[in-house]
Specification:
single chain, 91 residues, three-stranded antiparallel beta sheet, 3 helices, 7 strands, 30% strand
């Protein structure tokens, strides 16, 4: 079975990404450990960081920085959206 791929991405505070995968899961991925390397140094600029897009497989920035799709999927903290909806309806 193939690993799910990123279909939507949104930049969040503190250098994290909210990623929707093609299997319906949603996860939060922390990019901070990647920013330590020189290839990703440009991501320190929050305006540039917010330019992240999906490419049908992974996520990438305008100057070519990208993150391995395996890392995105397996190292993101999954959000259970149905639990959040049920909790909001109970309030």
């Amino acid at each position: 079975m193939l690993r799910p791929t990123a279909k939507e991405v949104q930049s969040l505070e503190n250098y994290t990404l909210r990623i929707s995968f093609d299997d319906g899961e949603v996860g939060i991925f922390d990019v901070k450990p990647y920013i330590l390397g020189s290839w990703f140094e440009e991501l320190k600029n929050k305006n540039y960081f917010s330019l992240v897009k999906t490419n049908g497989f992974s996520v990438e920035w305008p100057n070519g920085q990208d993150i391995c799709p395996d890392d995105l999927y397996y190292n993101s903290i999954k959000i259970n959206l149905s639990d959040r909806i049920e909790t909001a309806q109970m309030k």
